[in-house]
Design goal:
This protein is 41% helix and 21% strand. The protein has 96 residues and is of the alpha+beta class. It has a single domain, classed as Alpha-Beta Plaits, CATH 3.30.70. Strands 2-3-1-4 form a four-stranded antiparallel β-sheet, covered by helices on one side. The chain is globular and about 35 Å long. The relative contact order is 0.22.
Length: 96
């Protein structure tokens, strides 16, 4: 009886693993006060130092920074925000 139960549990566990979706890239949006290309370069420089950053999109006119992470890395918004705050102290998470 114990063998049968173990086999059933193993089969159920393998089915549940196959249903898990692959990790999607995390999109983190920040509002960062920037006035020039120098500001943009400083922000981009700090973000490129973070592990797991896949793409950085910076728009100086709207003062919006979008960071995309790799699929296999869980990048926390607070980590990204703290990195940007090293060069731009008034940075904050973008609110919709």
């Amino acid at each position: 009886m114990a063998r049968m139960t173990m086999h059933v549990l193993t089969r159920k566990a393998s089915r549940s693993k196959s249903r898990l979706s692959p990790l999607s890239p995390k999109r983190i949006e920040l509002k960062v006060p920037m006035c020039c290309e120098g500001c943009e370069e400083n922000v981009r420089g700090e973000l490129t130092l973070l592990e797991g950053v896949k793409e950085i999109d910076i728009d100086v006119t709207t003062q919006k920074v979008i960071v995309l992470s790799h699929y296999d890395v869980h990048l926390e918004p607070c980590v990204v925000l703290n990195a940007v705050k090293k060069v731009k102290h008034r940075a904050e998470l973008w609110r919709n």
